[in-house]
Amino acid sequence: MNAGQEAVWIEIVTLFPELFEVPLRTSVIGRGAERGALRFSVHDLRAHGLGRHRSVDDYPYGGGAGMVLRPEPLHAAVEPLRAAGAHVVLMDPAGERLTDRLARELSRVRHLAVICGRYEGIDERARSLADREVSIGDYVLTGGEIPALVLIDAVARLVPGVIDPESHGADSFVGGLLEHPHYTRPDVFRGVEAPAVLRSGDHGAVARWRRREALRRTLLRRPDLLADAVLSAEDEAILEGLRADTASES
Ligand code: SAM
């Protein structure tokens, strides 16, 4: 983190603040907060509940199973965050899909607020509180807390001062490819040797091997990514060779 740079501030609105206690205090994300690169505030939606029972949900108009989060507590919880300048994200299966590109974009936002839905979701009239809606994939979880943690983890690790930028510069999806394979000690495990080139000390040869293996892995597992990947003429030539190898093997 640059001296004098303020922490990226991530606020969370949830009915289950306890679900955030351990993840935001642990490992890379916890250290990022300790170092002052990240700051978290978790707000209990129940504090804005209505009546003696602090109710936050009600039956859906039109009938049907499940409950719906009422708009008033959501507005009471989120409006002050908006007024303070937060970029508000609603976790929702109907949202824009979380990708590396979106995580990088959000990592440049200095003040984020994340709304976690529950039950059947939120009253439609509360959607206007959000600047954007984000989905973590085409499946439904019981609540927005785990999706929010997925988003926060993906975003927070990219914030300067959280991890060494070199360690995420070659990660999968950066530049549009899957990452190359990794090996560590021992040299031979159950008869399988770690590639000799990785132990050669020849940095140029290591870089070439890694690029080739990233291309191979992407071609075999996620060929759809290649259409948008940033590829050099040398990459194209390697891919052509890999395609020819695959064709001759089949
Ligand atoms: N009835 C909703 C639907 O079919 O779209 C699903 C509601 S889900 C049980 C409750 C909450 O979990 C949602 O409001 C949302 O905040 C969160 N959630 C569930 N799946 C999610 C996903 N794939 N991505 C983001 N948030 C999700």
What are the main properties of this structure?
250 residues, alpha/beta, Alpha/beta knot, Trp Operon Repressor, Chain A, 2 domains, 5-stranded parallel beta sheet, two-stranded antiparallel sheet, 9 strands
- Which overall shape is indicated by the principal axes computed on the Cα atoms? elongated
Kindly state the number of beta strands: 9
- What structural category do the secondary elements indicate? alpha/beta
**Biggest beta-sheet profile:** 5 strands, parallel
Residue fraction in strands: 15-25%
Q: How confident is the prediction overall: mean pLDDT?
A: 96
Following the backbone from N to C, one meets helices and strands in this order, namely EHEEEHEHEEHHEEHH
Q: Going by CATH, what is the homologous superfamily of the largest domain?
A: SPOUT methyltransferase, trefoil knot domain
Straight-line distance between termini: 50 Å
Return the CATH topology of the largest domain: Alpha/beta knot
Low-confidence runs of at least 5 consecutive residues: none
CATH class (first level) name of the largest domain: Alpha Beta
Query: Which hetero compounds are present in the coordinates?
Result: S-adenosylmethionine
Strand order of the largest sheet: 2-1-6-5-7
